[in-house]
Design a protein that fits this description.
The protein has helices spanning 21-28, 50-58, and strands at 7-11, 38-42, 78-82, 90-95. It has one domain (7-103). Helices cover 16% and strands 20% of the residues. The protein is globular, with a radius of gyration of 14 Å. A 4-stranded mixed beta sheet has the order 1-3-4-2, sandwiched between helices. Strand 3 (78-82) and strand 4 form a beta hairpin. This is GB1/RHD3-type G domain-containing protein. Residues 34-106 form the GB1/RHD3-type G domain. Keywords: Endoplasmic reticulum, GTP-binding, Hydrolase, Membrane, Nucleotide-binding.
Length: 106
C-alpha cells in the first residue's frame, strides 16, 4: 500500500462516533480541502468483498477477510480511508456487513 494511505474507524461496532476525527482530517489534509472532495461508500452483505473492492479501486488499506481462516466479520462499524492518487481528493467509507452473523442478523 502507498505510504500516505490512512484509515480510521469513524463509528465503532457499538455505534459510537470516534471523537478523534480531527486527527484524521489533519493527517490527510482533508481540513484544507474545503468542499473540494468526494465521498464514496460501499454497503452490502458480510463477506461480500466490500473491503477488497475499496482497496483495489482506491488503494486504501482496509482489513480484509482471510478465507483460509473461515468466513467471519472483518469490518465493524464504519471505517473511512483516504483514496490514493485520485482527484478530486476522495474519502472511501467501508461499512459493516448488512447481515452480520455476529449481530444475530442471519
Amino acid at each position: 500500500m502507498a505510504e500516505d494511505c490512512c484509515r480510521f474507524q469513524l463509528i465503532s461496532g457499538d455505534g459510537v462516533l470516534n471523537m478523534e476525527l480531527e486527527n484524521f482530517t489533519r493527517t490527510t489534509n482533508l481540513s484544507q480541502r474545503g468542499l473540494s472532495y468526494a465521498v464514496v461508500a460501499i454497503m452490502g452483505p458480510q463477506s461480500g468483498r466490500k473491503s477488497t473492492l475499496l482497496n483495489k479501486l482506491f488503494q486504501t488499506n482496509f482489513r480484509m477477510m482471510d478465507a483460509e481462516e473461515g468466513r467471519s466479520q472483518t469490518t465493524q462499524g464504519i471505517w473511512i480511508g483516504k483514496g490514493i492518487g485520485i482527484e478530486p481528493f476522495t474519502i472511501a467509507m467501508n461499512v459493516e456487513g448488512s447481515d452480520s452473523r455476529e449481530r444475530g442478523q442471519v
